[in-house]
Amino acid sequence: FVMDASGANPRPATNSRSIKTFPDWLPDGEGIVYSSYTRQGDPGLFLSSRGAARPGPLLAGAIPGAPKYRGVFDPSGDFLALVASVDESTHVFRVRREGQQVLQLTRGRSIEVGPTWSPDGQQIAFVSDRTGAPQIYVMDRDGGNMRRLTFQGSYNTSPAWSPDGRWIAYETRLEGQFDIWLIDPGGDVNVPLVVHPRSDEDPTWSPDSRKLAFSSTRRGRADIYVMDVNGEKLERLTERKGENRSPSWGPF
Description:
single chain; 0% helix; WD40; globular; mainly beta; 6-blade_b-propeller_TolB-like; Tol-Pal system beta propeller repeat protein TolB; four-stranded antiparallel sheet; 20 strands; Neuraminidase
């Protein structure tokens, strides 16, 4: 679904019955890339473009045979950080939009997921369980200078780099439920933002870096909420039946 930033005018962006996950806007706002599961059970990437009659496959020829779980465009719109399964593990790749210049950025037996680009497109934050529990890491766009960013919490995931470059929002599990914290890209400042007895997950930034949208189960089912980055003005945006998760804020 797509809705206004106020929560008004919710409307379906896709209409097939397959499971769809991880929507992410193109930098120019002209489309959404997402993962959709095939009848065989493997995920692939699709692009729903504004004005197109139907969504089309994306990166179908890149890494043949590999299930593709998520794709996130860099700020230029020319490359994607791609999450795909190879060699019985899940890794992050950098791929041109046309499916060329495939570069594997992470390797080994660990599971690496959840990439998010820095606003200048030179770095990628991601999630890795290479130390046993999922933690947030940062690397250059070519896979170099990889370093661990988070050391607190037993399960850290869903990083989201702010458009102004100052913060990386992420969800952390400290006492059974997930809360949303902010950490600076250098790892020097790490502060809680959304803390509640129920879980708060899936942070995504407004284009001006002043607000965060996220999913929360504080009313039982998952709904989408928005809050100022100073922790004030919490507002629930969704009232639809079912679970509402994985928000992605448009670029404008």
